[in-house]
Amino acid sequence: MTINRRNLIQATAAFGAAALVGLPPLAVQARTTDTVRLGWGRGGLPLIAKQRGEFEKQLAAKDIKVEWVGPFPNHAPSLQAVVGGSADFGFWGSTTPALAAILAGSNLVFTQFNVYKPRSTAIIVKKDSGIDSVADLRGKSIAVNRSGLGEFLLIAALEKHGLSRSDVTVVYLNPPDAAPAFGQGKVDAWSMWTPAVDIARDQFDAKDIFFEGTDLDFLIDYSSLVTTRDFATENADLVRATIDAYRTEGQWISENPTEAETIAQAEGQYSDAVRDHLIGYNRQNIFYEADDAAFLTEFQRAADWLSEREILPGRINVADHVVRV
Question: Which one is the CATH code of 5-118+221-321: 3.40.190.10, 3.50.50.60, 3.40.50.300, 3.30.1330.10?
Fold first, then answer.
């Protein structure tokens, strides 16, 4: 592999930045491949990037080809694709299943984080269910995704309203199975994120009893761009280019909510009412580099909270599993 002047400068900068923050410097190689394989789902940042085409143009200008892998229903199978070698990056999913995978022995690292506001994960029930608050969930069944947003939001909601996990029946279902289960009344409630929770609220005449953006006391989960440590250290130039292209896409989404939600609607095949509700969030994307000290402090607090409640199977020092390129 030939390292040109631009790559040499980038490699030197990466080494210096790592030294400044006390992280072990990467054994930098600019690039071992000219193709990046990116996971995507039926909503969120990667979907918009895939459909709009500007993301691929930005990388093409750096001689990088994009291959989209998916769609994935949630972050766990996206991570499995990365670990198994069929994708280079996950799809900007939840940090919680990524932490669980790392604790299970996967050689995954976080390369960047995204906090979108307002947060819109919610616990929903049907309006005719007789359930009007979290306290009413006692003795009820709630669908969640294991070690993901759905599960942690439920645990936080139960704690806030004086209930324990043993007071309810937790049903572990991935989103494609949870939606019909909720619609058919096989579970009493569903803890889920956008846009699936918004679609279900509209389709099944449901309502919120706990809303992350207003009812959660502090953020416990974040969106993250995850790859393997080997890929990050062997392809620093490509990883940096991918991160930068995603930041550009995130800024476009923040500035163009109507256009972004219309693209997402075409993929999700949901009603104009749901689309307009999502536009109304006017969601903003805020990105954090992997070695941002203030962010890592908050992320560690969240990881500790998850470990203490056994949503994660053990404690983890998050700073050991981030890579700045």
Answer: 3.40.190.10
